[in-house]
From TrEMBL:
Domain of life: Eukaryota
Gene3D superfamilies: 2.60.40.640
Protein name: Arrestin C-terminal-like domain-containing protein
GO biological process: protein transport
One GO location term (cellular component): cytoplasm
């Protein structure tokens, strides 16, 4: 007995389904049989995290020419499976009645795993682009068929920003144009924040400066597959087609919401899991009249997470929040320190450890997950 119109659904305890490393994924599986009753063999639930990326499968050299074969490969780096309902001992089936049946569940998520991301909404060639997915899937096995329901969740490893230190950079091109950039709150932020800064140039030869372009770049890497693109792009206001000797302006960069945090997930050499990296950088390009005269400054940007729980209409929602200490608004009257501030990119050793990145600390212990 049984009907194909029976419904199996998963209801999670958060909307949107945003979860952080080490948290409990909670929810309910609901079954509404269409028949008065039917027999089932097993009701199970699994949580799975997997990467999608290019893999180097063969590299040969023939007559001095390199031939490299790349294929798209999925690798499961996290999987948990639980049984929600099964027959009593000695039986091979259990009875499901007409009344709606519900089963609650909770599964602990990994503490250290790559954040979810996908380029499906932006690129046509999705199969060649890196991605990380977390899914929850319920499956009801019947005698000759099965019911399945799958939901995607948003996973974020915790990357905490402890402190912020001002960052400044200075560079001079071949035409003696000096570019100075100062960011009082430094280069560590969470999604949705605004980066405030001051940009200044000294142009003693009165060379024509066409514009100053600013970008926030995002790099996503899974195995041999990578993607780099602009998530923010604009021209610095009030600087356009000028030959002024000295000019100073403020700028603001609005970071998008729901960015995956900066992360480097590097399994050990024996693992089949693929290295997964999320990186960000700030790019400033001064477009100048003349050959090879443009000035470019590219510096790493750390995107972290500061999870905060609160209730809205009875629903627990977890969102990123800003670090408690906020510096006051800046003005163009502030002096610019010519010292250079740098921040190393996140790296991982094969042993468990805690790393700090200058004065930008990410309270992460990176270790292998099996």
């Amino acid at each position: 007995m049984g009907s194909s119109s029976s419904s199996l659904t998963i209801e999670l305890n958060r909307d949107p389904p945003l979860y952080y490393g080490g948290e409990l994924l909670k929810g309910v599986v609901r079954l509404q049989p269409d028949d008065v009753q039917f027999n089932a063999k097993e009701l199970s639930l699994k949580v799975e995290g997997k990467t999608v990326g290019n893999d180097l499968v063969q590299h040969t050299v023939l007559i001095g020419v390199d031939y490299t074969n790349i294929e798209v490969k999925e690798c499961i780096f996290f999987k948990k499976h639980i049984i929600l309902a099964k027959p009593t001992p000695g039986e091979d089936k259990f009875l499901v009645s007409k009344n709606q049946n519900t089963w609650t569940f909770e599964i602990e998520l990994p503490t250290y795993a790559p954040p979810t991301f996908s380029l499906l909404q932006n690129l046509y060639q999705y199969q060649h682009q890196p991605a990380v997915h977390f899914i929850v899937e319920a499956n009801l096995k019947k005698s000759f068929s099965s019911l399945t329901n799958t939901k995607a969740i948003i996973f974020r490893p915790s990357v905490f920003i402890k402190t912020r230190t001002p960052a400044s950079w200075s560079i001079i091109n071949r035409q003696m144009i000096q570019l100075n950039i100062h960011i009082p709150q430094g280069i560590a932020y969470v999604s949705g924040e605004i980066i405030n800064g001051i940009i200044e140039f000294n142009n003693p030869r009165h060379i024509r400066i066409k514009r100053i372009e600013c970008k926030v770049l995002q790099t996503l890497i899974v195995g041999y597959g990578s993607y780099t693109g602009s998530i923010v792009k604009f021209n610095v206001p009030k600087i356009s087609d000028t030959t002024e000797e000295i000019r100073k302006e403020t700028f603001q960069i609005q970071l998008p919401q729901d960015l995956p945090p900066s992360y480097n997930y590097s399994p050990n050499e024996q693992s089949q899991h693929k290295a997964t990296i999320v990186e960000y950088s700030l790019s400033f390009m001064v477009r100048v009249i003349g050959i090879l005269s443009d000035i470019e400054v590219v510096k790493p940007l750390l995107i972290g997470t500061n999870p905060c729980k609160y209730e809205e209409n009875g629903t627990i929602i977890l969102k990123d929040k800003r670090p408690p200490k906020q510096l006051p608004p800046i003005s163009t009257q502030q002096s610019i320190d010519k010292t250079t501030a740098t921040i190393p990119l996140i790296t991982k050793e094969h042993s468990s450890q805690t790393r700090e990145y200058n004065n930008y600390a990410t309270n992460i212990i990176l270790k292998n997950e099996t």
